[in-house]
Amino acid sequence: MGKKHLYILCSVLVVIGVAVTAYRMFVLDFPALPEQTSEIWRIETKIEFDASGKQVKLDLQTPQNFGPYVVVSQNYVAPGYGTGSVSDKINRTTTFSRASVEGRQTIYAGAIIHRVRSRGAIVEDESPTQQRSRYTGSEASASQALVLRLSEQSADAETFTRLLVAELSNPPAGREAAALLGANRTSRNVMRTAARVLADANIPARPVHGIALEPDRRNAQLTHWVEFWEDGKWYPLDPATGAAKLPARTMPLWRGDTPMFRLTGGVNASSHISIRRVYAFTLRTALDRAQSAKNRLVEFSLFGLPLQTQEVYRLLLVVPIGILFLVVLRNVVGIKTFGTFMPVLIALAFRETQLLGGVIMFSVVVAIGLLVRFYLEQLKLLLVPRLACVVMVVIIIMTILSIVAHKLGFDRGLSVALFPIVILAMTIERMTVVWDERGPKEAMQQGFGSLAVAILCYLVMNIPFVQHFLFVFPESLLIVLAGCLLLGRYSGYRLVELPRFRVLAGGR
Amino acid sequence: MFGLAKRLKEAGVLGINHRNAVYLLPYNERRNYPLVDDKVLTKDLAIKAGAAVPDLYGLVEIQQQVAGAPDIVKDVEDFVVKPAQGSQGEGIIVVTGRSAGMYRLANGTLMDDNELRFHVSNILSGIYSLGGQSDKAIFEYRVKFDPVFEKIAYRGVPDVRIIVFLGVPVMAMVRLPTRMSGGKANLHQGAIGAGIDIPTGQTLTAVWKNAVVSEHPDTLNPVSGVQIPNWDKLLDIAARSYEMTDLGYQGIDLVLDADRGPLILELNARPGLNIQIANREGLAHRLEAVVANRDALKEVDDRIAFAKENFGSVLL
Fold it and tell me: Of A472, A477, A373, which Cα lies nearest the Cα of A428?
């Protein structure tokens, strides 16, 4: 069991700790910094129509997860309507229905979208079914002529699609493209036509409808593009650039020839999409997202605990950092303290009382405790009853301090629930023994040493980043453990030994 | 700062982490610690091994015996009370005589029967013991030190500390009580430590509270160049202590009694590092030399010869 064994153990711990932390940080998007915000988009679709007093049924296309866009939540405002959603691998259709209603109707469908850094798992569609030509008669021959001409100019599905979309977007008068499009030259019709011609060319394709995510659009316009199938994958073709990738900042909403909504039992329908960018705390959105995805690693994390228990762990998880720091101060620096972990416990208590209040509390309790302890020395009491007396005296001092602090208007003194009474009593006892045995100087040195270490531990444990990081990534404790294990074999000098042995360094 | 650390390392100065990680943990088995942590066990062990120790007058083991503690020493003028598991010389009372029914202590103060009982009771409670667990109080023979130390010790018994590694005496010093140490021979309490040249048994320079001194601060007599009597006998006892406890790295504290010669006072499984300052030399190189020649150092005589040959002081 040499050093090699230790190094292997530490490497394993560090690798596991770093891997799990990195996975949760970069893939699940848990924030490394406290209060980190991320981009959240709120897309709201408003449908208005006049109901004609019969049964009303509205099928609305609503967004679902795609690539870097993750739908955190969806909500609908449609009073009196029953809602239900059906999603296949391509589209998610939400149906609003009502038995009978009359007059102007307004239905809102909202979605919270989070754009993540990682490319996530792109929803893989099934391979497309064989599509039959939609064209007949003169349209069919126009389409075939166009396919024939473009096939000669293209090398593969991508170049063919690019040429086709370019030709359809800007059709030369009197050619096949103009005939196929007819009078409707909208982008939407261009893409629908492109998908049909592509089908004639034996390239599976479909039109896609989406929106560009731009801040605060009151009336966002749909954008359209076409997707073609090649080598077992769907590729989008950005009509603006001709590149085989999604238009920048554009999120697909639905695919195919389906309109955005289909209404029965109503007339004069209009739709209205608004987009708003909000910044939300990343932690919240990561959690929402992970919960909506039923991620095991979240179910199995501290966030699954009741809130009160979470608060306890928020405190508990910084203790290892304090302890590691204490190990460094004791074994690398060489500061003497009363009791091995006493300063960390005092530091924990400082979190309740705040630093200044805690230091005053500690100093006053120890000082009065010492006086009482010196008095008890005269009575020649046995050890355990004497310790018990010191504990009681400590409680009495703290009670009085709290009352006085409250009367003076400092309510800090009241939050002493965690102040370690027994630890304080032991400190007083140990300090008296050292005082007797080695003199007041040594006792004061160790007393102030303990207090200084406690303050330093408190300062380290109270860094918001440290608290946040350990709570969100508790697996990083493995790294702290590895550090502590390594310190266990540290055989170098302690800082305080350097001046102590200075006289031995000369002579050269 | 790193330069200083580097120079210390080159000089072979042993730091406390180095001592613990490289020598204590590998060479001292935990199960052997009680043998030296409990001075009653150490005494038995030493007697079995044929080494001399201060006579045991009596033990107080439970609180009920505390009342009768003065009876243990009613037939002797002087004695020492110490905790069986004390560390660093804490809790030791040296009674040099009686006056007016009171005990006269080495530091000149007086103590009555009740104060003695209270001290014994404190010892039993464990305030001086290593882990704070309950303890025993030892009443034993007070050493009358060899006259050679009369001029360089202030009220108290000087003792000789020898670091023994794998049975080889690697470094030694004599600890001289001062007024500041209250007659005790512990360096951190203010006693003087003077290094000893292993081959000859002569004292080298001395340290007092981290400062190098050449004379005793209370008696003003020189502390260097003093020949320790019975030096070969001391080395022999030290070398044999390895077989006694099986502890690879230990410190043995010996006293020179005027009548009875060298006595084992106690053994220490975690001996301090100040001995390096007293000798103006680091321990690490000597320890490494022992490890390198370990196979040739099986017999006591070989080990002493090796020490005398290799561990002469650089100061002479």
Answer: A373
What residues of chain A lie within 8 A of the CB of B4, using their CB?
498, 502, 505
Q: Does A173 touch chain B (CB under 8 A)?
A: no
Q: Does A508 touch chain B (CB under 8 A)?
A: yes
Q: Which of A112-126, A193-207, B181-195 has the lowest mean pLDDT?
A: A112-126
Reference A68, options A195, A205, A213; nearest CA is: A213
Proportion of chain A above pLDDT 70, given as a percent: 86
Q: Residue type at B5?
A: A
A29 vs A130: CA distance, rounded Å = 39
A331: contact with B, CB 8 A cutoff:
yes
Distance CA A368, CA B84 (A): 33
Whether A106 contacts A47, CB under 8 Å: yes
For tokens 């292997």, name the residue.
Answer: A8
The greatest distance separating any two alpha carbons of chain B, rounded to the nearest whole angstrom, comes to 61
DSSP state of A218: S
Tell me which DSSP letter residue A128 carries. Answer: P
Q: What is the structure's pLDDT at A295?
A: 60
| Chain segment A28-47, per-residue pLDDT in tens | 777 777 766 667 788 888 88
Cα B121 to Cα A383: distance, rounded to the nearest angstrom: 8
Check residue A331 and report its DSSP letter: I
A125 residue type, one letter: D
In B158-247, the DSSP E strands lie at: 159-165, 168-176, 192-196, 203-208, 211-213
Cα separation, A40 vs A282, whole angstroms = 9
pLDDT recorded at residue A120: 42
Say whether pLDDT at A426 is over 60. yes
The number of angstroms, rounded, from the C-alpha of A107 to the middle of its chain's C-alpha atoms is 32
CB A364 within 8 A of CB A397: yes
Mutate to test the interface with B, among A333, A491, A508 (most CBs of B within 10 A): A491
Q: Which residues pair with B79 in a beta bridge?
A: B95
Distance CA A370, CA A389 (A): 12
Are residues A261 and A32 in contact, defined by beta-carbon separation less than 8 angstroms? no
CB contact under 8 A, B15 and A491: yes
What pLDDT score was predicted for residue A388? 87
* Distance, CA of B241 to CA of B257 (rounded, Å): 19
Contact B1 A498 (CB under 8 A): yes
Whole-number pLDDT of residue A123: 46
Q: What pLDDT digit, counting tens, does each position of B108-139 carry?
A: 788 998 889 989 988 888 777 765 678 899 99
Report the mean per-residue pLDDT for chain A: 81
CA A413 to chain CA mean position, Å: 36
CB B282 within 8 A of CB B12: yes
Give the ipTM: 0.76
Question: What distance in Å separates the CA atoms of residue B95 and residue B290, rounded to the nearest whole number?
Answer: 41
Q: Record the tokens describing residue B126, joined without a space.
A: 């464990």
Beta carbons within 10 angstroms of residue A57's beta carbon:
16
The reply to whether residue B280 touches residue A508, judged by beta carbons under 8 angstroms, is: no
Residue numbers of B between 227 and 286 with CB closer than 8 Å to A = 276-277, 280-282
